[in-house]
Amino acid sequence: MDTPIKKIAFITGSTSGIGKATAKIFAKNGYNLILTGRRKERLEEIKQQLEGKYGIQIITLCFDIRDNAATKKAFKALKPEWKKVDVLVNNAGLAKGFDPIHEGNIADWELMIDTNIKGLLYITRLVSPEMVKLQKGHIINICSTAGHEVYPNGNVYSATKYAVDALTKSMRLDLYKHGIRVSQVSPGHVEETEFALVRFDGDETRAKIYDDFTPLSAKDVAETIFFITTRPKHVNIQHILMMGTQQAGSNFIDRSGRK
Predict the structure, then answer these.
(1) 215 part of a folded domain
(2) Which of 53, 103, 179, 205 could bridge to 135 as Cys pair (CB 3.0-4.6 Å)?
(3) In Å, how far are 73, 118, 170, 211 from 110, measured between CA atoms?
(4) Beta bridge partner(s), residue 60
(5) How far apart (Å, rounded) are the C-alpha atoms in residues 138 and 85?
(6) Is the pLDDT confidence value at 194 over 90?
(7) Does residue 157 carry a catalytic annotation?
(8) How far apart are CA 159 and CA 112, in angstroms?
């Protein structure tokens, strides 16, 4: 593959939801992409679609972000020119289970901790040194309203997102002297994702949590992510907290019907 001459966006968890929508908007605006995920067929489908439509180059990396060795192997396989990432979107994350703390499933807890916290750290540790070397770059972490406000049965998921918030602030303090911007987007409820389906173990009935109100769409969040990256070099939007109009907080939703 030829050396990329366009800017590069590295997007984790890009096979569905916010990650996929983010890949589309960056491709539309001329970015070459590095897309990661666990589902190879979906990655290849997105690659073919976006390359064909927008004339950009895409590298797909299929691995489980919880696996540090696999993450390192995938990144090290990139050619040197592809390691010069302009924008890293740490999007990969999930919620699993919805139980009170005394009934929680340990495997679910470990899955969320390993994905939402450790996976984010693994990728950032690989991508950020080149940004420091080049004295430029932008890291955008996808947090959640759950990282700022807890709710019943959200215990460990909220804890992981509180950790993302703390890491974002800490990263910024470590990297701002190197010309690197660190930002965060914290969405409330978002449809067009697999969030609810994963949380409720594939139970489609329980996952129908958006039928009686209008939440954000994955595209809404992707547009916000891209907006952050397009600010002038001297501007860093540190955090955007966003919800649908019918959602006022984690525990306050107007469920009187979609509007």
Answers:
(1) yes
(2) 179
(3) 23, 10, 23, 30
(4) 35
(5) 9
(6) no
(7) yes
(8) 10
Q: What does the alpha-carbon distance between residue 16 and residue 166 come to, in Å, rounded to a whole number?
A: 26
Residues in contact with 241: Cβ distance below 8 Å, sequence separation at least 6, in sequence order? 145, 148, 186
| Token pair listed for 199 | 């949380």
In a domain, 3, yes or no: no
Q: Is residue 255 part of a domain?
A: no
The answer, yes or no, to whether residue 39 has pLDDT greater than 50, is yes
Marked catalytic residue, from 31, 122, 157, 210:
157
Copy the structure tokens of residue 221: 């969040």
Judge contact between 95 and 122, C-beta under 8 A.
no
pTM exceeds 0.70 = yes
Return the residue matching tokens 């501007």: 235
Amino acid identity of residue 143, one-letter, is: C
Span 73-98, pLDDT tens digits: 999 999 999 999 999 999 999 999 99
Whether 254 is covered by a domain: the verdict is no
Question: What is the DSSP track for the chain?
Answer: -PPP-S-EEEESSTTSHHHHHHHHHHHHTT-EEEEEES-HHHHHHHHHHHHHHH---EEEEE--TT-HHHHHHHHHTS-GGGG--SEEEE----------GGG--HHHHHHHIIIIIIIHHHHHHHHHHHHHHHT-EEEEEE--GGGTS--TT-HHHHHHHHHHHHHHHHHHHHHGGGTEEEEEEEE-SEESSSHHHHHTTT-TTTT--STTS--EEHHHHHHHHHHHHTS-TT----EEEE--TTEEETTEE--S---
CATH number for the domain that contains residue 183: 3.40.50.720
Domain count, the chain: 1
Tracing tokens 């979107």 back to the chain, one arrives at 89
